[in-house]
Amino acid sequence: VALACVALGGVFGAFDVTLVGWAELGGRPWLAGPAFSALALAIAVGSVITGARAWKLSPIARFIGFAAAAAIAALALPLTQAVTPVLFLAILVLGLLLSPVMISGILVASARAPEGRVTETLAYPTAAMSLGVPIGGVIAGSALDATGPATALVSIAVALACAAVIALAGEGLLRVARR
Asked: Per CATH, which fold does 2-178 belong to?
């Protein structure tokens, strides 16, 4: 989960760099603030919805499934960048899908923590996300400088796909190790 959370952190680093670049290149640098606010609002609403729901899927299944769904939703970002209201709608959908990914990652780590070491164990996914932020920023910034916002926005989808694949591979390795 911690390795997958590095990729998840990359989403936020890529989003930060790309949206500022998108707004500046579009001649409307003030739009970066509302774009960040839209993501934050959607994550907050998604967190309340995620926490209020009784889920039938396990936390790891939710992590993998929602990370994959968010990756697919993030593919709309480069396609909608030219039409600001549609881009903001895509950002809202992405934020709603990111909430269960983050919450499920913490739940998985908590459930797998050795007795008496939950707090320490929860530090791993949190620190991993923090590590992923500058990595995502560097990758998206390089893409932004080389080709513009569209490619940089694709890096968000790639980071989410990586999070899903890493979590799926890790879960597979754990199942093999248990046998």
From this structure: Growth Hormone; Chain: A; (1.20.1250)
Q: How many residues does the chain have?
A: 179
Q: Give the residue carrying structure tokens 């709608």.
A: 89
pTM of the model: 0.93
- Cβ 123 vs Cβ 71: under 8 Å: no
Q: How many whole angstroms separate alpha carbon 44 and alpha carbon 118?
A: 24
- Going from N- to C-terminal start, the domains of the chain cover 2-178
User: Could you tell me the pLDDT band of residue 83, with boundaries at 50, 70 and 90?
Assistant: confident
What average pLDDT score do residues 132-148 get? 96
The pLDDT assigned to 66 comes to 95
DSSP letter at 31?
G
Supply the DSSP symbol for 26: T
Q: How far apart are CA 129 and CA 76, in angstroms?
A: 23
- Beta-carbon neighbour count of residue 48 at 10 Å? 11
CB neighbours (10 Å) of residue 27?
Answer: 7
